[in-house]
Amino acid sequence: MSGVAARRASLAFVVMLVLGACGHRQLDAVTGTDNGVNELPANYKSEILAAMHAYLNDPTGIRDTGITAPELKPVGDGGPTRYIVCLKFNPKKSASDYAGVKELAAAFVAGRFDRFIETPREECAGAVYTPFPELQKLPP
Predict the structure, then answer these.
(1) Which pTM does this prediction carry?
(2) Are residues 56 and 4 in the same domain?
(3) E strands, 8-101, in order
(4) pLDDT in tens, 47-68
């Protein structure tokens, strides 16, 4: 086999491995099996803070904040199991008026923030919150 042919064969093999890994990861997300999908989120607080900054119209002056530790729970009614972190907070509705305490769940896939769950009834039932002062100090 010539040098060019060997390099092409090596490149083709690497491409097949990469594509195979991508397909495997997608299958895991669909089936809910755990091959790294349910990795414990190490930086969950900083990832939630970044997501909240984008999620809220006015991220300043938040009050009454709380957060739970990451916990493996099913998402929704019979959905896949993911690490879930529950949040509670009272965001501003206007410059001087607050909207009232709101509860969200943050879902994580492969140790990274994936999305917020707006109505986390099952995910946050019986949640034990600890203070989350970092959320109260978000910059504009």
Answers:
(1) 0.74
(2) no
(3) 63-67, 71-74, 81-90
(4) 999 999 899 988 999 999 999 9
